[in-house]
């Protein structure tokens, strides 16, 4: 059985880190502000910024909304797919 040290992130933390990195890159590429991201997600600018900084977790709804907005798969955002080819 593989054991992790106490300082090593859990699988959930690693997945959320990937989600945050990928969404942050897409937000930057599109030039979205935190206010615009918050508007897409029904959140305040402060909450959107907290998500981009990894202080607040992404919900399933966030991931679905952003996959549709950026035309990428949820698998890409979750780190299951390396390519972020546009999806219809």
From TrEMBL:
Domain HTH cro/C1-type: 23-77
GO molecular function: DNA binding
Domain of life (superkingdom): Bacteria
InterPro entries: Cro/C1-type_HTH, Lambda_DNA-bd_dom_sf, Tscrpt_reg_BetR_N
Protein name: HTH cro/C1-type domain-containing protein
SUPFAM superfamilies in alphabetical order: lambda repressor-like DNA-binding domains
Organism of this sequence: Bifidobacterium breve DSM 20213 = JCM 1192
Coiled coil: none
